[in-house]
Protein 1
Amino acid sequence: MSDRLAALAGLARRADLALFQRIAGADNPVLDRSMPALSRAADWSRLWLGLALLLAVSGRPAWRRAAARGIVSVVLASGAANGLAKLSVRRRRPPLGGVPPARRVHRAPVTTSFPSGHAASATAFTVGVALEAPELAVPVGAVAAAVGWSRVWTGAHYPADVLAGAALGAAVSLALSRGRAAPTRAAVRRGGSRRSRGR
């Protein structure tokens, strides 16, 4: 069983590398200019902080709640991805030999590769926002997907790093939602019980 799992893991790593190399060999001058800029904008979650600020000053209560939930989700997801997950896996960054210099990020990441902290934060913010303001799911999700793609296009991550980061970010945001909903349901049940006794 362990030999089979090891063989499958090796196959997955080779497929991941092959996909990364294929993307690195793609030629798109528009993406070469835009993706590094987008990737840098998402450093330290600046992009999500900026979007949260816009939502917070929108005057719409649901959008203000979306901003708060999104930022809390980013903080938790970023901590999980850049802390325990990276320390546990310790995957090296992709080889940059095949990535055109023009599209690489100017500041090479110093942390390990798996999972992508950028993708975790992007997805966590999107899910958090969408739970409070579903009408924002598509536009915010499109930005998050572009950030995830930028991490592969610039050579910062393998595709699997981004997918794993996105899954982690979504899981953290959904867990936060369930954690908030549980006390609310309990309060409703207690209120209903008190009303029943009062009859």
Note: The helical segments are 2-24, 29-41, 46-56, 61-89, 117-132, 137-153, 159-198.
Protein 2
Amino acid sequence: MGEQFAQLAAWLEENPCAVDGSRLLGDPRLRAAAGSLLFLVVEPGVVAGVVPWALTGWKVAHPPLIIAVVGYVILVVGVAVLLHAFVRFVVEGVGTPAPVAPTRHLVIGGLYRYVRNPMYIAVALTILGQAMVLGRPVLLVYALVFGVAVGSFVHLYEQPTLTSQFGAEYEAYREAVPAWLPRRRPWRPDRPASRSDDAAR
């Protein structure tokens, strides 16, 4: 994740005029960064923050220490993956995760070389981590509901939309990279897909 933020910082250094407020609206990556930040606050912020708080009040039920520790690890990993995915959308895709402001380019770098939906997986991990840290089973049920909803969204809307937008490029990516269970090795577009290296789709 640090590498992705370094890339974004390097780009800003190479484009000092991009921080000029008068040119903000004309710079696609800055618009993408602003839009992605807004989406991060509104969408994952609500799904993985506001809703768990509404369900539990973030009141701790004192789970066993080992469960709480593992939960903290899962929570931190989820947040790190989520931020990484958002940076990829800005730096590589020049767009946002929001359907109303999609990327100009297909995002296939970083963790997207291993699995097609790291952002959704990250949100699920943050919910699961909170369930373990707080010792609140209701969040496990909520994580399951979230998973079903996201899986349906991906199947019914996202995949057809990306196929329509990116055509053969997305089809090749979809064929090579699993949706939910990561590959053991990163996919490279310049090499033929190896099904033996894929996790189950």
Note: The longest helix spans residues 28-56.
Protein 3
Amino acid sequence: MTSPEGTRAVPGTPGAEVPPPEATDTPARRLRGVPRQRHRTARSGEPRAAARDTGTLAFVESPVQLLNVLEWAHTAQATGLTVVVLSPQDPMTRGQLRRMAELARDEGHTVRWEEARGGPTAPMRTIGGLTPLLRRAHRVVIGDPFSRYVQLLLSLARARDLVVVDDGTATMEFISQLARGEQLVRWHRNGSGRGPRDLIFAPFSATARRRLTPAPEGGRRTVGLFSSMPVEAPPGVEVTTNEFAWTRSRFGPPRLTRAADIVGTSLVETGVVDTERYLAAVAGLARTHGATRYFAHRKESTEKLRRLVGETGLEIVRPDLPLELIARRGPIGRLIVSFPSTVVHTLPLALKGTEVKVAVCDIDPEWLTANASPRAQGFLDGVTGTARDVQRLPFTQPMAAG
């Protein structure tokens, strides 16, 4: 079996392809099957010229964050953004980011790629190079308020307008912690958050939390949230719904296949869910729903994916783009089955107007590891319980199928 356009399969699996090598200074290749986007202001077949800088500076560290920056710019009719990619080291994430960066350039935005983690001196070099941009920016858009890198950069920014775009389900936890005035800590982290590194970054984290807290009524600082998540923002935070209008206007509708597709998760890699329990659940879902493909999360380990192939016969697909774009372009199954994750909130929006159904499988408390955060089960239940326009599958169903 072959992987769909714009994806890569895991080496050692059916239809396997090795992700293309990429160099720091090599621009992203043109996406196969994705023509340059056409705009009213451009001549047919040419990308829109970069607009004059409007003073908006965006920081992203993942492909989904960059996608949501493009969605925000489309909704806000913001042009000429400067998007700074704080590049991670993971090859799969870097590959997706380079492809998203090309789409951002086609939209007329400037993309600045920073090797922010390329050695011990990289952080200081990156921050030093970005300081002039931070000083001039009137508006800053961020995708991950939990990121220490972003928190450090926020402490240098003078912008009066801050916008937070979705970074998946982490947005829900961010808003909850902001409303309670708590320290910003990722939901899956176990511990007090007072280790040596936490203490070093504590002043920057506190500054970032203050910057992300709306000013009193009549204040000159604004905080906005652009999200597809069901959140109750604290007073003063202006919420705009992300309906994936840019994605739907640029791609699709997709061709649908008869088989179901399963969306993978990195809950095993983050230490939340036991490996054996997860593999058994995926096998049960595949048998129950007739799934033939498994769309891997970019952080899933190759070893786990190889085991899935051997134990389930599923074709493992490594998407080259965020799943919202892959699904919208197609081909995609008429049924998409997922565990609690961002996609149970985003895919129904991206696939609006199609016949695709999205189902979510609950996480059995027995699947959690001994090291999982005490908050894990409640958070995962909240992700599932607040999802709209999805079919909910009890965790007993996939296990019973075995």
Note: The first strand starts at residue 7 and ends at 9.
